[in-house]
Amino acid sequence: MIYENILTATDNNITTITINRPTKLNALNKKTIDELHHIFSAVAKDKQTKVILLTGSGEKAFVAGADIAEFANFSVEEGVQLAASGQEKLFNFIENSKIPVIAAVNGFALGGGLELAMACHIRVASDNVRMGLPEVSLGVIPGYGGTQRLPQLVGKGRAMEMIMTAGMINAEEAHRTGLVNHVVAQADLIEFCTDIAKKMMKNSPMAIGMAIKAVNANFTEGENGFDTEIKSFGKCFGTADFKEGTTAFLEKRKAVFVGE
Ligand code: COA
């Protein structure tokens, strides 16, 4: 697939995906969501990539939301379809990725942009970020998981306030409330995320994938997180990575994981 709205590059087992519609502040239109789905699916099958960084093009925005111009005239049915297909193809897909996804949030993260960052496993913000879910100011509600993931990250009361006021918070508040893990100068953002990725890459990719699944189970309807943890914990004992990790420890050497 030739991408129009995203850029990708893989370097030292880290794939960086950049949403690239800077003149529209990287707003998520259908084509961009389809391209993101395509690249995330492709990377999931690619043995090279151990960590994914997701960011926005330019210095102003990560993503300023779903593309308002595209859905302004939608019907009820089209609205349902927009949210359902976006959640399945992109937001839930990223959340359930076995490969860790770090959002390098480099400016406005509004509406679908904040929802996208929240679907990632970790968020690092540049000091100029402005984050919010302004949907009610447009007469709609967050549709890409924002009503669910924002309370998970910042608590119900804060999420209710952010959603109902449609306000934006700055980097300091995003950090204080747990919405982002770290805040760094914009010039250092990618390097900082790369350092986190390097720490992750020392560990077993197989175990990391299992850990993501177990953590997510707590937030998945009909799943018991403790049961998922027990099953996943047990599965690890049958893997090459477990054998290598424990043997390397006992032999006092660095483990070399194959991710299986
Ligand atoms: N959908 C479609 N286009 C968008 C967009 C969105 N979510 N966000 C920004 N854009 C476009 C603008 O329409 C403008 O395009 P134009 O130059 O062709 O007119 C361009 O991006 C630049 O945005 P602009 O509003 O001129 O920049 P600004 O610095 O004055 O304001 C924001 C920045 C983020 C405050 C403002 O763009 C905004 O409020 N965007 C919408 C945020 C939102 O409600 N998102 C949730 C959607 S559900």
Mean pLDDT: 97
Q: Give the overall silhouette.
A: globular
Rg on CA atoms, Å: 19 Å
Uncertain parts: none
- Helical proportion? 40-55%
* Name of the level-1 CATH class of the largest domain: Alpha Beta
Number of domain units? 2
| Major sheet characteristics | 6 strands, mixed
Strand content: 15-25%
Span between N and C termini? 29 Å
CATH topology of the largest domain: 2-enoyl-CoA Hydratase, Chain A, domain 1
Second-tier CATH architecture of the largest domain: Alpha-Beta Complex
Strand order, sheet with most strands: 1-2-3-5-7-10
Q: Please give the count of helices.
A: 11
| CATH superfamily (homologous) name of the largest domain | 2-enoyl-CoA Hydratase, Chain A, domain 1
Secondary structure layout plus pairing:
Layout: E1 6-11, E2 14-19, H1 30-45, E3 51-56, E4 61-63, H2 68-71, H3 76-95, E5 101-105, E6 108-110, H4 112-119, E7 122-126, E8 130-132, H5 146-154, H6 156-165, E9 168-170, H7 171-176, E10 182-184, H8 189-201, H9 205-217, H10 225-236, H11 240-250
Parallel strand pairs: 2-3, 3-5, 4-6, 5-7, 6-8, 7-10
Antiparallel strand pairs: 1-2, 8-9
This protein binds coenzyme A (COA).
Coenzyme A (COA) is lined by residues 24-25, 27, 64-69, 108, 110-112, 134-135, 138.
Please, could you describe this protein's structure?
With 260 residues, the chain is an alpha/beta fold. The protein folds into 2 domains: 6-201, 2-enoyl-CoA Hydratase, Chain A, domain 1 (Alpha-Beta Complex); 205-250. Helix content is 47%, strand content 17%. The chain has 11 helices and 10 strands. Strands 1-2-3-5-7-10 form a 6-stranded mixed beta sheet, with helices on both faces. Helix 1 (30-45) links the parallel strand 2 and strand 3 (51-56). Helix 5 (146-154) crosses helix 6 (156-165). The two termini are 29 Å apart. Residues 24-25, 27, 64-69, 108, 110-112, 134-135, 138 line the site of coenzyme A (COA).
